[in-house]
Write a structure and sequence with these properties.
heterodimer; A: 396 residues; alpha/beta; 3-stranded antiparallel beta sheet; 12 helices; 12 strands; disordered N terminus; B: mainly alpha; two-stranded antiparallel sheet; 57% helix
Chain lengths: 396, 501
Amino acid sequence: MVDRRTLLKTSLQLTLLAPFARLATAAADKNSRFVLVILRGALDGLAACAPYADSQYHTLRGPLALGPPGTEGGVLKLDGTFGLHPSLANLHALYQARELTVLHAVATPYRERSHFDAQKVLEAGKLTPAATDGGWLNRALAAMHGAGDTHGAVALNDTVPLVLRGDVAVNTWAPSRLQNADEDLLARVRKLYEAVDPPLASKLNEALDARTIAGDAANGAMGGSQQQVTPLVNAAARFLKSPDGPRIAVVDVGGWDTHANQGGAQGNLATRLKGLDAGIQTLKTELGPVWADTTVLVVTEFGRTVAVNGTRGTDHGTGGVAFLAGGAVKGGRIVSDWPGLAARELYENRDLKPTTDLRRVFKSVLAERFGLAESALERAVFPDSTSAAPLEHLTT
Amino acid sequence: MLSPTAAIAANRFGLGARPKDGAAIGSDPRGWLDAQFSATAKTADAPKTEQPASASVLVKFRDLRVARQAAAQFRASVAPTERGTPPKAASDGDKPPPASPGIDEQAIKEFREFVRENYIAQVNERHRRAIESDTPFVERLVHFWSNHFAISADKQLVGPICGLYEQEAIRPHVLGNFRTLLLAAERHPGMNLYLDNTTSMGASSGAAELARRRGRTLGLNENLAREILELHTLGVDGGYTQHDVTEFARVLTGWSIGGQIGQRGLPGGQRARALLGDPGKPGEFLFRPIMHEPGEKTVLGQKYKERGVAEGEQVLAHLALHPATAHHLATKLAQQFVADEPPAALVDRLAAVYVKNDGELTPVYRALIAADESWKEPLAKYKTPQDFVISSYRAMNVQPERPETLIAFLSEMGQRPYTPGSPAGWPDTAAAWDGGDALLKRIEWAGAAGRRVGDRRNALELASAVLPASADERTTASIRNAESGAQAFALLLSAPEFQRR
């Protein structure tokens, strides 16, 4: 059995604070790419990355518990405590290639259990869900632009998710099966908007630019609510490879709210995880050499209850998991101040206790990969985040 | 052209003007809106459209699904390696029937078509009504409350009844008392299945006791209780705690569905069957005492004695009249009909009217019509894709040629009918819908619509019938100067004054 103390020795190294100034070296010339993947609905962190050696894990998880490494349907071993869900074979390979870091027992500052409020906090980057005037990634873009890095961002969605809303205009793109409008009509509509409704004109111009870049990726058909990762990351790769294109992409996918019949090694969640796993692999393949400059961060609004509920699923929880992948990641590690699943360590007697503020991860990527200074991060991007110092050396 | 207030009545309160609506609205837009309440009451007893009851659809759906699962299992057992992936596990706890060679591809196909056909028929019915409605404000209210009590067709069990849920649980009650509407929505099998309550059991219930003796644990699923508090009544800041959620979930244990579909997750076997009690009417609401957590519960500080199904009804009645509920509903209504950031004074007035009238909804709508705030700031709201498409059809005065086309268009614009994907429903603020890519798709849609009707309609005449008189003269000029009837029509539907309301 692995107790918390042992884990602190083996996995914690990164949470120590370091002089922040060192982080913000000349990162702007790194040609960094960043993909933020938001899993809406609350991914079950204890299924995605299971503490298979924690003595409480099998007791509390019951029929949802995954077996130890090497057994049929067992986890893919990361270390003596943790293993990835068997659907995450590509992520496992990335871990072994030191291109994946697992961040566990993470959470935003939000401590209630509403999906919608939790997503607001995750995306707005403020302390309370009431602040929804814009997202942290847009404020980060504004700071980058202020420092002379004028690359943009794209949302792989019909509309801009909160995390990217704000003063800096960003592109949107989603697969289309509609017949393209003819050039003459578009030109006339554009002229009309420019005369009568400038906000609509700028949105239309952005969309036309985005479509030029996305090109043939437009043929990836998809259903109403976005639930497939691969067509979206395919398009994201095209944007990020384009020399003058955006350097930041946001992909959001729903379908993670597994209240009932969640499944174990097989089943509903396993299928969704497989899609995520394939999506990350596609991104790596499609980005080619650009992968080396890329950081992909996969986050969700909160974790789920430690114990299985009455309907073979899990309810809304608190601490969860995040994945940091990419050629620019110092991977092959689990970064966690792991609280364990002992009853006295659970948050409100039911949830994985959050021990790492997700904003520390966001800040780290923005500082290490995009050279944002501490002052900008504290003042403009994440107000009221002094207590959440950036984790150090997550990326190269 | 429509006067500014007539345009607001038709567009912001309604679903867009048809060519003839200007005459009906006349010089009394407020009166036109108010008259829709009595007109709706008069037609309430009129013959209903030929739609099946959700109960019968659910029963048939379950039968087909059992057959499909058997077929899938049989198929997998024949050629497990060729298929690559194992069969989808029985996801509702039904005992998988033994594989038999008689049913194979046919059962799988039949199941798929049943789901598809029901979905398409119900989406078509919803849009047909909206496009031809003479009471578009009431129709908007049906859509509003259906979205307030959202279920989502991307959950398989919900897909074939999403529109019937709206017909049965929402439509009859939108002009009545909120308590009645709330109860109807929470009792409906669509909601019950969507938020997992059919499988939520009290830890001390008869079913859980029985399962425990067999080494299986059954217990609560708090999904429905949480979303009622957070989304349907008090609102997320309404002052409830995790304890309230758990207690309310206990109160709601046993709220289930009659017949086999409501027995998912219950222990099987002869002894269990003997304890099940009233099997209920298949596919309709049924309170199952065997699932219910016995004993007194406390929700929001109020104690509820053990009274079976009546406990839940009491809690809902209490929630319906709670001041936080009044404020939450008033905010949502004002945001839907007035502004993305609704004026606080208006919200307070609406909430006060709600409380004074014990949750009667029509007085609140009347207050909304009477409010000065509703008639200021033309074009303050941005249409959702759904309302953009419906208003396009109303302007063209035609029904969709094929419902599949309408579904495909709305999917492209990010609003596939009945699939908000979350119990919060679709958002209705501009920020959620005004992305550039979605706008480009609206123009593509307008182009396609123009090609369909452009050579048979005079877009310029139509513009004067459906756009507000305040429309920019450059908008009308662009329509006048179009190179073809089709293009003129596309420009009308793309115009800023047609995107905003």
